[in-house]
Amino acid sequence: MKKLHNLTKLPSEFIDDPKFESKLRTKYLGSAAGSEKLYINIDYVKPGGKSVKYHSHSHQEEFFAILKGNGLLRFNDEEIQVTTNDFFAKPAGKSIAHQFINNSDDILIILDCGTKSDDDEVFYPDENITYIKSEKKAYKDSKLIKDWSSD
After folding, report:
1. pTM, whole model, 2 decimals?
2. Residue 32 DSSP SS3
3. 28, 41 in Cβ contact below 8 A?
4. Which of 11, 25, 81, 116 is deepest in the core (most CB within 10 A)?
């Protein structure tokens, strides 16, 4: 073990939106601890916010646990209510799309873990866009899209 870390003392370089001014803040625990094959994040989603755009991964396997709060899991075109202590795993596969939506009045806190894969392709069905991680490029109908963001 390189170093013991604390969630409340995480350096700001490992926190997306440290002041929590947007609808989503992410703490990158795995990166802070030096994880090489796994990512481990905690996502904080404000009421009305979304964890990410609705998407699937070709190679990345993921695990999610609701640490606190209530929300909606959009999973393969189903909407499933989730609450504190719910968890599930999502195997890799383009046909397994997912997204969390906070439809409550409190912050939704999600443990988000998974495998890192440089060969991963991320598919965004709502936009019909595929992001190729190894190229750091997005495509729609096989045409390159410039200035596209997964946010």
Report:
1. 0.91
2. helix
3. yes
4. 25
38-41 contacts: CB < 8 A, separation 24 or more? Answer: 38/113, 38/114, 38/115, 38/116, 39/112, 39/113, 39/114, 39/115, 39/116, 40/111, 40/112, 40/113, 41/111, 41/112, 41/113
Return the DSSP state at 150: -
Residue indicated by tokens 């200035």: 147
Return the structure tokens found at 150. Answer: 């997964």
In tens digits, what is the pLDDT along the chain, a chain of 151 residues?
567 889 889 999 999 887 888 899 999 999 999 999 999 999 999 999 999 999 999 999 999 999 999 999 999 889 999 999 999 998 887 678 999 999 999 999 999 999 998 889 999 999 999 999 899 899 998 899 988 887 7
For residue 27, what are the contacts with CB-CB under 8 A and spacing of at least 6?
A: 7, 10, 14, 15, 16, 41, 42, 44
25: which strand partners? 44
- C-alpha–C-alpha distance, residues 139 and 115, integer Å: 23
> Measured between alpha carbons, how far is 23 from 17 in angstroms, rounded to an integer?
9
Tokens linked to 71: 């929300």
